[in-house]
Amino acid sequence: MSAATTVTARLARLRLTDFRSYPSADIRVGKGPIVLLGQNGAGKTNLLEAISLLAPGRGLRRATLDQFATRRPGPQGWAVSAVVEGAYGEVVLGTGVEADSEARTRRCRIDGETVGSAAAFAAHIRIVWLTPDMDGLFLGPPSERRRFLDRLVLAVDAEHGARVNALERALRSRNRLLEEPTTDPRYLDAVEQELAALAIAVAAARMETVQRLAAGIAQGREAHDDGASLFPWATVALDGEVERALATEPATVVEDHYRMALRVARPRDRAAGRTLEGPHLTDLLVGHGPKAIPAGQGSTGEQKALLIGLGLAHARLVTEMTGGTPVMLLDDVVAYLDPERRIALFAALDALGAQVWMTGADPSAFAALAGRAETFAVTPGHIEKHA
């Protein structure tokens, strides 16, 4: 889809009921950047988290359903509602848990009609975010990078989360069967057949996203080839047996081979107490392109800049693949940038054309946005727009 036909999806209104530190909140915003200012603990991140629940998954903190509710005795409900302007005009998206509900399940609605999950919201809005928790991404365990990777995929493929969850359930089923002293091999055959199909589907979706992301980064490399970019380009690749096989063989062949490998590995996996091969162990390899070093070997500042550059490249990929710009949530990202990098980030966000929500404690960090951004003062349980 060309830039001329790209849809800029945005939130026009956000309403919260008994969500985190907000007994109630009602925010209306325009088309420019939104800046949420307040001291640490004021509730700025809570607002971004509420928006993140309009994307598939558990939100930017990966919280449980009961953690979202305002702290009161007994089971409590909570609700997030947003007026969204997107490809299909204006719609109202809502999600939450009903108070005193025995099921304690999250419900999702579009214009008041119940839908199966937040994956249905993807037709109207896509959301990407960067948070301080991501700072340790390059030095942390592979599980953190897989979670980050699956969030990248989920932004362009709303059903990816369901496949990943199904894969995890199939792995748990196989592990339980292996623990039993006597198990009918036919049961294991059936579980491993499902497991192999899910594993190849998850691995293929990850590969497509990473390959497209790498291609998009390569297209913009000319401006960064001198290594002086404030947000250097990244190299991205997957490290996993299934992914290496998919790079050279048809998916059906790889699925058959993986299923046979699972059967052969039963004694080894039984002894280990877990499945020792598959995309549940894949790692995302990220490198500092201009320096040709692994991202984890860069300085703290280089890693932050690399992560922001990767986030911007991902947002551009979402736009390219879905035909609409994502809503971007930047939690306390600007505070750690020097003035030159702040200006560069604001310019990159302008070029992207996405609606951006940013948090911070220091108003001076957003001085370059004066006259263009809407600024809100956030205090515990309250939010007020600056005049």
TrEMBL record:
Residues 11-360 form the RecF/RecN/SMC N-terminal domain. Its main location: cytoplasm. Signal peptide: none annotated. The keyword DNA-binding applies. It comes from the Bacteria. Keywords: ATP-binding, Cytoplasm, DNA damage, DNA repair, DNA replication, DNA-binding, Nucleotide-binding, SOS response. Pfam families: SMC_N. The keyword Cytoplasm applies. It is found in: Cytoplasm. ATP binds at residues 38-45. PANTHER family: DNA REPLICATION AND REPAIR PROTEIN RECF (PTHR32182). Belongs to the RecF family. The RecF protein is involved in DNA metabolism; it is required for DNA replication and normal SOS inducibility. RecF binds preferentially to single-stranded, linear DNA. It also seems to bind ATP. This is DNA replication and repair protein RecF. The lineage of its organism: Bacteria, Pseudomonadati, Pseudomonadota, Alphaproteobacteria, Hyphomicrobiales.
